[in-house]
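Revision sheet: structure tokens.
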Amino acid sequence: MYWLSNVDLSSLKIENWDGEYTVFQPESGKTHFLNEMGLKILLILDQSPATLGTLCQELSEYFTLLPDAKFSGQIMKTLQRYEALGLVSSVTENT
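Predicted:
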């Protein structure tokens, strides 16, 4: 399964509040409140679609973390929340 961005990141209005971010999505009229990792997920997916494993690897390298099953589960929950908000979509690759 791949995850991809549903929004053009340049269309979002992003403000940094000491490591916390407000992200206004003009298309939906909604404002989202994200931490740095949440924003980094959107930045990665804005560059190209990615699997959960790829996202976890890039995030763990960026934040100097050791990924484990709990970390992967937290990222999956975030992706599902973003999907419900219309920020990302999951795509199953046909093999």
